Amino acid sequence: MPTDAALSPTLLAALFVFAAVGSITPGPNNIMLMVSGVNFGIRRTLPQMVGIFIGLAVINLAVGLGLGLVFSQFPLVRIGLMFVGIGYTLWLAWTIASAGSLGGGTLAHPLSFPASFAFQWVNAKLWMTSIAAVAIYVRPRHVVSDTALVTGMFSVINVPAMFLWAGFGVGLRQALQKPGRIRVFNIVMGLLLAASVLAFLRG
Question: Is residue 134, in this structure, part of any structural domain at all?
Fold first, then answer.
């Protein structure tokens, strides 16, 4: 095996930091996990977490193994996907903001596994993070191994990040028992979710 087959310790550390920042910072997935933690608790949020976990891995693999090339050759595909994602995320933001009580209003249940998995395909933050990670850390002569490494790193780090955000929501649950408080919380989270996706229009 050639000596350059593996990323250097410096690049591995940089990839770890990149994956950690991408996983822990606010974005559509993390905001919705916190909202679900508040409204439904950890157990009922688990299918949503599994959908995120598998969706993230599939998209990282797809981008690393060639979908990024499709986007570069056919930019309208990426633009179309981005606008579908923005529209769907804004709808989710409205669903969250219009819920007036714990698990009430239009927020009657957490995202199911299929809905959560499908959402990853229109999650603008995930696509941008995945494309950036592949562009920086996947070397032309080591596409398969480097893509597997990037995918594995993101997947491993994303698990505690998901539980952290959902757990933070659970921690707030008692303080938000009163309908007025949860209404304010859901409105603020809906606005943050909308802001997190609209930021890509300015980028």
Answer: yes
Range of the domain at 136: 27-202
Of 146, 126, 168, nearest in space to 42 by CA: 168
**Structural domain contains residue 45:** yes
d(CA 187, CA 26): 16
100: number of Cβ within 10 Å: 15
Block residue for tokens 């090339």: 69
For the chain (203 residues), the mean pLDDT of every run of 10, in chain order, is 63 87 84 88 94 96 80 72 72 73 58 92 84 82 89 95 92 75 76 69 54
Q: At what angle do helices 28-62 and 143-173 cross, to 10 degrees?
A: 160
Residue 3 lies in a domain: no
Tokens of 17: 């930091």
- Total domains in the fold of the chain: 1
Q: Are 45 and 166 in contact (CB under 8 A)?
A: yes
